[in-house]
Amino acid sequence: MKFSPADLPDLTGTSSIVTGANAGIGLITARELAAKGASVVLACRNVVAGEAAIKDMTGDVRVEELDLASLASVRAFAARWRGPLDLLINNAGVMNPPTYRETADGHELMFGTNHLGHFALTGLLLPTLLHSTRARVVTVSSIAHHGGNEKVLLANPKDKYKPEPYYGNSKLANLLFGLELGRRATRTGLISTMAHPGISATNLVASQDGMGANRAIRAAAPFVMPLIFQSADKGANPTLYAATLGEPGSYTGPQKMGESRGPLGPARLSTYAQDADLAAKLWDLSEDLTGVEFAL
């Protein structure tokens, strides 16, 4: 289907949070939501970068500190939240650190940031979301989830660290969570959708928390990626669609070149992503690891 930010509905009166919105796809998402009238909070670990980002935005936008690699930070963010919340976009992520790294809570960095941080954030904000008549949670995954498998339940242990399969499992966890949230929230009216950006020229590769820990990759990425991959603006379209027009339980992504780019449509789910039993087991594990239970 053809879709661009011009197709977004009027979002006046919508209160929203976008994690990791100081750069890349998150920034574009926040910008376009605000341009359509939404009140948008950029939830960022780097507040200085977030404040710089909103200078070029129009509308009701503000920055709040959130480090998804720290459950204490997630809890503090949720405790500070005041007022309504209609839309939560779980966008932030870390990709492929060359060596094993941990969150503040001792979890592998990608599993802890990409999945556990967002799981806890959603659960802690759920009571506020459920007060909205249009509550929606969007979870951003990746085509890399096809590299994940049942070992997602091992939560990326230190002794077997490999960047690509561990990233794949963290993004598989995103999908398992988003789909299970939709199943469990059916009677509440909350809508859970998922999206992936294809392959886009963003700072995810250059980030020092991920592949950018390698100096050569960090230096080359800003020049090479725009020549090969689609723009961050196009990469944000699946998320924007999922945040406004996506059907409950839908997974949206580009349709061309192995879902790396092109017009939007239903994205392909791996066999593991469709495993409801695996999703339920991951949910229980995530509650144990975060100490957050969902009031559903």
Question: Could you provide a short overview of the structure?
Answer:
This protein has 296 residues and is an alpha/beta fold. It contains eight helices and eight strands; from the N terminus they run βαβαβαβαβαβααββα.
Characterize the overall form: globular
CATH level 1 name: Alpha Beta
Q: Note poorly predicted spans.
A: 216-221, 223-228
Question: What is the annotated CATH architecture?
Answer: 3-Layer(aba) Sandwich
Classified in CATH, the superfamily is NAD(P)-binding Rossmann-like Domain
Structural commentary:
Pfam families: adh_short (PF00106). This is Dehydrogenase. It is a single chain. Strands 3-2-1-4-5-6-7-8 form an eight-stranded mixed beta sheet, with helices on both faces. The protein has a single domain, classed as NAD(P)-binding Rossmann-like Domain (Rossmann fold). The protein has eight helices and eight strands. It is globular and about 45 Å long. With 296 residues, the chain is an alpha/beta fold.
Annotation keywords:
39% helix; 8 helices; single chain; alpha/beta; 296 residues; 14% strand; Rossmann fold; 8 strands; globular
Secondary structure layout:
Blueprint: E1 15-19, H1 24-35, E2 39-44, H2 47-54, E3 61-65, H3 71-80, E4 87-90, H4 109-129, E5 136-140, H5 163-184, E6 191-195, H6 215-228, H7 232-244, E7 251-256, E8 261-266, H8 276-290
Parallel strand pairs: 1-2, 1-4, 2-3, 4-5, 5-6, 6-7
Antiparallel strand pairs: 7-8
InterPro entries: NAD(P)-bd_dom_sf (IPR036291), SDR_fam (IPR002347)
Pfam families: adh_short
Organism: Nocardioides baekrokdamisoli
